[in-house]
Amino acid sequence: MYAFISSAYLLIFPLLFLLLILAPSKHRAILIQLRSSVQLSLIVYALYLVRQMIGLFQLRKLLKMPNANIDYFGTGLFEMGCMMVLPFLFLQQRILNSWKLGFVIWLVLVHMLQRQDWMIIINGWSIVNAILFYISLVTTIYALLWLLKNQSFSSAQ
Asked: Which of 52, 116, 120, 141 is least surrounded, with the fewest CB atoms within 10 Å of its CB?
């Protein structure tokens, strides 16, 4: 379910980018907030990847695998490392409101997906659950951003 966040980001980010270009100016603020919510959802995906890496490390220790020279650039670990670190940069407001880091992350995700030969597994009801999970996650983040914006506006008055 958490892995669906990356697939949804691959589809939604370019769509929001095009809508920001083509939409009238009265809808731009809503689309920018929605893009910020989608970008912040990647933090949940980064935490999921951190948990996956901890599990792999524990499995390697359990099986007493030797410490071999690992080619970090050839195994996808470099991309996973980027995906574990880069989304946390969205916690800065200036970076969250720009599209540049989001585009870099989108390119890293496209590269990771090409490495897997564009293998996206869709399994009946699990895709429905994943879509509903993602919609609720983005809605929660959007509401949190809205509350934080209104809180800072009311405290400034």
From this structure: 116
The number of folded domains in the chain is 1
Question: Residues 98-109: what's their mean pLDDT?
Answer: 91
H or E stretch covering 36: helix 28-62
* Residue 61 three-state SS: helix
Model pLDDT for residues 70-84, shown as the tens digit of each residue: 655 556 778 888 899
CA dist 50 and 52 (Å) reads 5
Q: Which of 102, 90, 83 is nearest to 20 (CA)?
A: 102
117: containing domain: 4-156
Q: Three-class SS of residue 106?
A: helix
